[in-house]
Amino acid sequence: MANYYTDIPELKYHLNNPMMERICELKERNYRDKEEFDYAPQDYADAMDSFDKVLEITGEITGEIIAPNAEGVDEEGPHCANGRVEYASGTKQNLDAMVKAGLNGMTMPRRFGGLNFPITPYTMCAEIVAAADAGFGNIWSLQDCIETLYEFGNEDQHNRFIPRICAGETMSMDLTEPDAGSDLQSVMLKATFDEKENCWRLNGVKRFITNGDADLHLVLARSEEGTKDGRGLSMFIYDKKQGGVDVRRIENKLGIHGSPTCELVYKNAKAELCGDRKLGLIKYVMALMNGARLGIAAQSVGLSQAAYNEGMAYAKERKQFGKAIIDFPAVYDMLSIMKAKLDAGRALLYQTSRYVDIYKALDDISHERKLTPEERQEQKKYAKLADSFTPLAKGMNSEYANQNAYDCIQIHGGSGFMLEYACQRIYRDARITSIYEGTTQLQTVAAIRYVTNGSYLATIREFETIPCSAEMEPLKARLVEMANKLEACMNKVKEAQNQELLDFVARRLYEMAADCVMAHLLIQDATKAPELFSKSAVVYLNYTEAEVEKHNSFIEKFNADELVNYRQ
C-alpha cells in the first residue's frame, strides 16, 4: 500500500533540517517532560525519531484509508438536516482513524493530552493528508485553531478546552459574514454581555465557515456598541454543547466537497471572551489567520504533489504514436516544471514553518520566565521572518497548486476532462487555495511592505553569502542578476512616489521577490541533496529567470500615465 510519507523522500529531507535541533531544544524546554511522560523524548535524536514515526503513521493512514475514501467523499459530501451537519461516511472513517492514532492536538503540551510537536512536523502531516483529500485536510487541520486559544486564552480555558481537542473534537473559526468577506472590520455579529448569566450572548449570521458545525468555535464578534471598525471587535469561544447556533445551509461548492462550508445562525448563543476585549481583529485574528495561511500553504503543496503524481503516472502509461507520452518534450517539459514548482514551494513552506516554530516557542517561554537579551533578539528576528515569509508561502504555493492541477489535466488530454480521473477533483479542490484565508491579492498587500522596506532583498543578499556546490555556482550567479533586477524595479517604483503605481505593480514585485527566495532555497537543497533537487534547481532557475525578466521588462517600461488605460 502507498505511504504518503515514506514514498516522498523530500519530506524526510525537510524534516531533518539543522534548524530542528534548536526548535526541539526550545519546544521541549531541554527535554524536561521525560521525567513525567513516558512518551516524551529523551533527547534530540529521540524527538526526531518520534516525528518520523508519527509521520509514517500519518502516511500509512492517508494511503490506506483517506486516499481510497477520497472519491466517495467527493461524490457524497456532507448533509445538513435539522440545523446540524452529517459528514460523508468516508469522512467519519477518516476522522475515526486519525483520532484512534492520536493525531489530534499535535502541537499542544503533553499536560493537555497533546504530543507537544513543533509546527514543522505537524505542517508536514497536514501536507500529507491534503495530498490524499484536501477537503478532509480542512476538517482535520482546523485543530490548529487551538494554537490561538492556547496563546491568548486563560488557564481555566486551557484546562477545559484543549484536552477536548487533543481527544479528537473538532474546531472552526467563525470570521466571515454575508457583508464582511475579506473586510473583517465590517463584522457585525453582535456580542452582548448577559449580567444575569455572567456570559456573553452572540446574535447574527456567519457565512463561508469551514467545518461550521464543529465542537468548538473561535468567533469574531462586535462587543463594543456603536463601533464600526476593527477596534470594536473581540474574540469569543463558543461551545456547541451550549446550543444556540444552527446550520442554515451547506454551501454548494466547486471543490473540497468533503469539507462542509456552512452558513450559521447565532440565536442568543452563550459564549465566553477569549483574551481581552477590542483585540479580536487587531491581535487575535491576525495570529489565527497567519496559522491558517501556513495551513493553506501546506494544503497547496499537498495538492501540487497529488497533481504531479497523477500527471507522472498517466504520462508513463499513456502511449501515442508508438511510445509513452512522457518521452515527448512537450510533456516532460510540463512535468519538470510541475516538479520544480513543487520542490521550490515545499522549500519555502518548511523554511517558513521553521521560522514560526522558533519565534512561537520563544514567545511561549516568555510566559514562563523572562527571556535573555539574546533570546529576545532571536525572537524578534524570527517573528519578522515568519511574518514576511507567510504571505509568500501561502500566495505562491496556492498559485502553484492551481498551475500544477491545470497542467495535470492537460497531460491527461481528453481523459482529464472526464470525471472518473482523479485529476479533475484535484483541479476543483486546488481552486479555493488562492481564495480563502486571504486571496493572493491580499497576500500581496501583506507582503509588499517587505519589498519596499528592503527586507526581502536583505534576506536574498544574505542567501547569496551561503556557500553552494560547484554545480550550483553558475545558477547562483544568475540569481544575483535576478536580485539586481528586483532591486532596480523596487527603486524605480519607490522613486515615483505614486501609491497607485505601487499598488498596480505590487503583484509583480511580490512574485519577483518570491521567485528569488525560492530559487535560493532550492539551490541550498540541491547542494545538500543533489540526488533529490539538482534537476529541479536547474529547471526552476530557468523558469523563474524568465518570470523575473518578464516583470522587470514591464516595470522598467511602464509609465504611470498609462494607468488610465487600465481603469475600467
UniProtKB/TrEMBL annotation:
Keywords: FAD, Flavoprotein, Oxidoreductase. SUPFAM superfamilies: Acyl-CoA dehydrogenase C-terminal domain-like (SSF47203), Acyl-CoA dehydrogenase NM domain-like (SSF56645), PG0775 C-terminal domain-like (SSF158494). Residues 283-444 form the Acyl-CoA dehydrogenase/oxidase C-terminal domain. This is Acyl-CoA dehydrogenase. PANTHER family: ACYL-COA DEHYDROGENASE (PTHR42803), BROAD-SPECIFICITY LINEAR ACYL-COA DEHYDROGENASE FADE5 (PTHR42803:SF1). Its cofactor is FAD. It comes from the Bacteria. Pfam families: Acyl-CoA_dh_1, Acyl-CoA_dh_M, Acyl-CoA_dh_N, AcylCoA_dehyd_C. Residues 173-268 form the Acyl-CoA oxidase/dehydrogenase middle domain. Residues 92-169 form the Acyl-CoA dehydrogenase/oxidase N-terminal domain. The keyword Zinc does not apply. It comes from Parabacteroides goldsteinii CL02T12C30. GO terms for molecular function: acyl-CoA dehydrogenase activity; flavin adenine dinucleotide binding. Gene3D superfamilies: Acyl-CoA dehydrogenase, C-terminal domain (1.20.120.470), Acyl-CoA dehydrogenase/oxidase, N-terminal domain (1.10.540.10), Butyryl-CoA Dehydrogenase, subunit A, domain 2 (2.40.110.10), Butyryl-CoA Dehydrogenase, subunit A, domain 3 (1.20.140.10). Belongs to the acyl-CoA dehydrogenase family. Residues 452-563 form the Acyl-CoA dehydrogenase C-terminal domain.
